[in-house]
C-alpha cells in the first residue's frame, strides 16, 4: 500500500495540472470551493485492493488507486475541508500500466469507480487501460468472473438425473418380470397341476418327475 501527499498552489495547478503514477490531471481545473493551496492525497492499495473493495460478479485485475483533494491554505499539511474539482477542459484520466489478465483470456476489461458510500459504477475503458473521470474517487479495472461453479453444479445435477433414470428403469424391469411370472403361475393353475418351489422371493412352477416302469414285450420266461 502506498500513500502520498502533494501540496500545490491553486494558480499553478490550474495552469499546469498535475501528474501522479496513475493519474493525469490536465490544466483548466479549479478547486471548489476556492482555495489558495490544495493538498492532493494519493493512494495505491496494491495487494490490499480486494480486501477493501469488490464488485459482485467481477474480479479485480489492477490495483485500486484513488485521490482526494483538501483545502491546504492555512495548514502546512492536509487540511480538514474537502474540495471538489470544476473541470473546464479535458477530463482526468487514470492510466493502468498493467492488468492481471492471462494471455488468450477472452474477457473485456471495464473501468470501475468506487464511491465513498461503497457504491460502484462500471464503464468502458477509453483506450489502452485508460479510464476517464470527472472527479475524485477510487478506481480500478475488473473483468467478469468465470462461471466454474455453475458448470460444476450443472454436471452434478445431470449425474443425479442419470442415476434416477437408471433406478426407475431397474424398478420397471423388476415389476414387468414379476408380472410375467404371475401370469405363468395362473396359466399353470388352469392346466396341469405343477408342484411349486421358491427361488429367493419368487415362486417357480415345477413338474414332478415320474420314471416309466420297464415292461417285458414277451411274457415267456424259460
| Basic shape | rod-shaped
Helix and strand pattern: EHEEEEHEEEEEEEEHEE
Alpha-carbon Rg, integer: 43 Å
**Uncertain spans, ≥5 residues at pLDDT below 50?**
none
Q: Strand count, sense and closure of the main sheet?
A: 9 strands, antiparallel
Average pLDDT figure: 79
Span from first to last CA?
127 Å
- How many beta-strand segments? 15
The helix fraction, in percent, is: 10-25%
Percentage of residues in DSSP E strands: 25-35%
- So how many helices? 3
Structural class estimated from helices and strands: alpha+beta
Question: Brief description of this entry?
Answer:
With 222 residues, this protein is α+β, with helices and mostly antiparallel strands.
Give the secondary structure arrangement, pairings included.
Layout: E1 2-9, H1 10-16, E2 18-19, E3 23-25, E4 29-32, E5 37-44, H2 49-52, E6 58-60, E7 65-71, E8 82-87, E9 92-95, E10 110-114, E11 120-124, E12 130-133, E13 137-144, H3 148-190, E14 195-199, E15 202-206
Antiparallel strand pairs: 1-5, 2-3, 3-9, 4-8, 5-7, 6-13, 7-8, 7-13, 9-12, 10-11, 10-13, 14-15
Plain-language structure description:
- The chain is built from 3 helices and 15 strands.
- With 222 residues, the chain is of the alpha+beta class.
- The mean pLDDT is 79.
- The protein has helices spanning 10-16, 49-52, 148-190, and strands spanning 2-9, 18-19, 23-25, 29-32, 37-44, 58-60, 65-71, 82-87, 92-95, 110-114, 120-124, 130-133, 137-144, 195-199, 202-206.
- A hairpin with a 2-residue loop joins strand 14 (195-199) and strand 15 (202-206).
- The strands form 3 sheets. Strands 1, 4, 5, 6, 7, 8, 10, 11 and 13 form a 9-stranded antiparallel β-sheet that branches. The protein has a 4-stranded antiparallel β-sheet with strand order 2-3-9-12, with no helix packed on it. Strands 14-15 form a two-stranded antiparallel sheet.
- It is rod-shaped.
- The chain is 24% helix and 35% strand.
